[in-house]
């Protein structure tokens, strides 16, 4: 008899990692234009932990005022197509796929359904499910920031703060593919990692105050939001930009009051709010880079579903190197 249930992580309220519990759910059924995926791996991202905490609080207006509206967290997934309904033309049962469910969440689960025209693609033969699950986090976000938000051109100088994280490790490789000069900022524990990914220079933020360098940068990409436009202004070139994916009140003040019309600028963007068709196009371009061995995902730890609390605790530590995965196979 066909199994009609699945195991998934339920988020019961906003709070620490302990609000995540593994429970039995009804297996989802695909509707017209949807694909049912037997999920093998889900990304556990820094953004997931902010959503779990419900911070910044303004976000709760969209995510649920008292508790998350969607009971199953997670957005990055990779697995095998289990079933399609007649309208689906691009995917067949057995296809290996990965993608990002955006505000549909639900990837911390053994099964999920997504629209066939969602942010989804076939996985290259050599790509593991773990790599596929995390691909839309660091790679797509850093592609958006470096290429579209900062509009960088070859030979420009890029500083990446948080170069050893998910966004940072992808950003180094994207920067080198775009022929940028890349300076990576992280602790000395990760110096070898960022250099192996192609960084031209490395700065240990624990021993060097990079805001006092004599060098000037076209773009400072603060992936972890640990610095600020004000602190970095002195090391930006005349038209230089401080771009940051971490939502903070100070960044908004910088963007609207301290950025100069014709000079140095501070910028924030929420990649997940871009049009699905644009996100899918970015994913496809990056997959081509993966096929050409121009980008790889840096994998740190893989946790079983029943270790979801430990996975979130590790991400909360702020020390992860690259990416973390929740495996449905362990
Ligand atoms: N707006 C968007 O579109 C968007 C999309 C995705 C994610 N995000 C956000 O982007 C942020 C970054 O995510 P992530 O997953 O890349 O982060 P992460 O992987 O958690 O970053 C961890 C890394 O940051 C390094 N680090 C910690 N403190 C540092 C400091 N003071 N200076 C330099 N490096 C430091 C650590 O290296 P050491 O151990 O060596 O210090 C560690 O390897 C999150 O806040 C996430 O929510 C935004």
Describe this structure in words.
The chain contains 9 helices and 15 strands. It is of the alpha/beta class and 330 residues long. 27% of the residues lie in helices and 28% in strands. Strands 3, 4, 5, 6, 7, 14 and 15 form a 7-stranded mixed beta sheet that branches. The mean pLDDT is 96. The two termini are 24 Å apart. β9, α5 and β10 form a beta-alpha-beta unit. α3 crosses α4 and α3 crosses α8. The longest helix is centred in the middle third of the chain and has 21 residues. The protein folds into 2 domains: 149 residues, Quinone Oxidoreductase, Chain A, domain 1 (Alpha-Beta Complex); 136 residues, Rossmann fold (3-Layer(aba) Sandwich), CATH 3.40.50. The structure holds NADP nicotinamide-adenine-dinucleotide phosphate (NAP).
In short:
The chain has 330 residues and is an alpha/beta fold.
Order of helices and strands: EEEHHEEEEHEHEHEEHEHEHEHE
CATH topology grouping of the largest domain = Quinone Oxidoreductase, Chain A, domain 1
Question: For the record, what CATH class of the largest domain applies?
Answer: Alpha Beta
> How would you sum up the global shape?
globular
Number of domains: 2
Q: Architecture of the largest domain in CATH?
A: Alpha-Beta Complex
* Low-pLDDT residue intervals, each spanning 5 or more residues: none
| CATH homologous superfamily label of the largest domain | Medium-chain alcohol dehydrogenases, catalytic domain
Ligands: NADP nicotinamide-adenine-dinucleotide phosphate
Overall radius of gyration: 20 Å
Residue-averaged pLDDT, rounded?
Answer: 96
What about the largest sheet?
7 strands, mixed
What class would the helix/strand composition place it in?
A: alpha/beta
Query: What level of helicity do the residues show?
Result: 25-40%
């Amino acid at each position: 008899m066909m199994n009609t249930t699945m195991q998934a992580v339920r988020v019961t309220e906003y709070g620490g990692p302990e609000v995540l519990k593994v429970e039995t759910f009804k297996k989802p059924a695909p509707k017209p234009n949807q694909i049912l995926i037997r999920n093998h791996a889900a990304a556990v991202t820094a953004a997931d932990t902010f959503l779990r905490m419900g911070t910044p609080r303004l976000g709760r207006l969209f995510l649920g005022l008292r508790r998350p509206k969607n009971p199953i967290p997670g957005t990055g997934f990779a697995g095998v197509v289990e079933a399609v309904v007649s309208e689906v033309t691009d995917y067949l049962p057995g296809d290996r796929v990965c993608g990002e469910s955006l505000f549909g969440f639900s990837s911390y689960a053994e099964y999920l359904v997504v629209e066939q025209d969602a942010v989804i693609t076939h996985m290259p033969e050599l790509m593991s499910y773990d790599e596929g699950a995390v691909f839309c986090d660091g790679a797509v976000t850093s592609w958006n920031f470096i290429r579209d938000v900062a509009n960088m051109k070859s030979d420009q100088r890029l500083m990446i703060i948080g170069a050893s994280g998910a966004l940072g490790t992808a950003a180094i490789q994207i920067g080198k593919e775009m022929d940028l000069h890349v300076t990576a900022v992280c602790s000395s524990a990760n110096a070898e990692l960022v250099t192996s990914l192609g960084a031209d220079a490395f700065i240990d933020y624990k021993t060097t105050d990079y805001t006092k360098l004599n060098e000037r940068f076209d773009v400072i990409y603060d992936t972890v939001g640990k610095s600020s436009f004000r602190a970095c202004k002195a090391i930006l070139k005349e038209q230089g930009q401080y771009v940051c994916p971490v939502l903070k009140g100070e960044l908004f003040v910088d963007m609207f009051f301290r950025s100069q019309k014709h000079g140095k600028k501070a910028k924030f963007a929420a990649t997940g709010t871009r049009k699905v068709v644009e996100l899918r196009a970015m994913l496809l371009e990056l997959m081509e880079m993966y096929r050409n061995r121009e980008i790889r995902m840096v994998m740190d730890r893989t946790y079983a579903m029943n270790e979801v609390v430990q996975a979130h605790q590790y991400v909360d530590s702020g020390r992860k190197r690259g990416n973390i995965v929740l495996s449905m196979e362990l």
